[in-house]
Each structure stands twice: as structure tokens, then as C-alpha cells.
Amino acid sequence: MNIRYFAWVREKVGIEEETVTLPDHVATVADLITHLKTLDDNHAAAFADEEVIRVAVDQEHVEADTPLQGAREVAFFPPMTGG
Amino acid sequence: MTVTPTVRVQADDFDVDTETKHLTGGRHDVGAVVSFTGLCRDEGGRLAALELEHYPGMAEAEISRIAEDACRRWPLTGLTVVHRHGKLAPGANIVLVVAASAHRQAAFDAANYLMDFLKTRAPFWKKEHLKTGETSGWVEAKAIDDAAATRWNGA
Fold first, then answer.
1. How far is B155 from chain A (nearest CA, A)?
2. What is the ipTM of this complex?
3. Which domains occur in chain A, in start order?
4. Residue B80 host element (H or E)
5. Architecture of the domain defined by B6-150
6. Which end of chain B offers a freer environment for a tag, N or C, measured as fewer CB atoms within 10 Å?
């Protein structure tokens, strides 16, 4: 699965994009965050305050309990500040 | 029948007159055009530039979803939204909404609605570059913007 990061989430993780092979127990967005936190210190730091982080699955906003089945791309980012 | 909004996400500047004429030229059913332009402030002389990061693809898709909602909610004759990305100097244009309708209220409301939801849902993030040469960091989302978007629920 393709994972993308934006703004300070990207800076903390240290990369813009990565491909992650999901373990069987990862079924939802929340499971994915738990898994990503175990990858290394940068991921753990980026997701330390995970309540703040927003998620999009295949370029649509979703909540943490959203299933990942069939998803191609998941993006993590801070609350938006455009306009 | 609802109109199809025009949505663009671009590094280049935009021209309000040109965009307005696209919605009014050659037609006689438009009685009101409301345009909103968001510009880069220097925050009291502190700021050298704002850097706008965006999520390519989703930025266009999300603004289009909001614009299509607005076209269903109000009887618009046309709607254009342009959002810039990249490093922008104080005084530069950031965002444009032009809403056209037969009567003013729909045009005012649709432009307002667009900006409220664009602020809280369109995937853009602002980073401040200071005149001292430092980066002061990412602009934080404001609760007042969330509240502005929430007020349309049930409206």
C-alpha cells in the first residue's frame, strides 16, 4: 500500500512517500497508525499525537475506524490551513 | 440543472477580471457576481513568504466536491475556484472564488460557503518564512475556521 505524508507529518517521518506491506492484523486506518508507529523513531514521533492527524484514503477524508480493504493510497497530514 | 464548477490548483497567479468575464461574457441571465480573493499578509512586517504545500490530485478533488455541493445548494449560473501553491510573497494572491447567480444572495452565500469549507477540508498547508531568514513553522489550524464551517450544518 502506498502511504503519503504532508506538512509537518512529512517532516517528522522524514519521507514524502513509502510503500508498506500490511500485516494481516491491520484492517483499519487506526490499525495502520499503530503499525506505522512501530516502524522506527521518526514514525513514532510523527504519530505521537495521533488525535491531531487527519487521514485520507484514496484522496477522500476518512475517520480512524475506516476499513482499508481495497485502498490503494493512504495519506496522513495535519489539520488543513489553506484558503 | 446545476452548473459544473471550474476548479484549478496552480502555481501561477490568476486574474480576477478574466475569471469574472468567463462567468458573465455573452450571457444575460447573470444578475450578481461575488468574488473573494485571499492574499498573503506580511503579519505586521514579520513574514518574507508563505509556502503553500498541497496534496496534488486530492486538492482538486476536494475543492470540486465542495464546489459541487454549493452548486446543488444555490441556484448559481457559474462558479470558479482557483487555489495557488508554492512560495508566495506578501501581497500575492492565494485563492479566488467567483460565484455568479441571477440574484445576489445566492452568490454571496455560495462564495462564503466555499471559503469556509475550503479552509477546513482542502488539503493545503501554510508554512511561514520570516524576514530574518528563519522558518517559523507551520501555520496552525484555527478553531474559528472549524466553527465557521459548522454553522452551515442545517442551514
1. 22
2. 0.95
3. 2-77 (3.10.20.30)
4. strand B76-84
5. Alpha-Beta Complex (3.90)
6. N
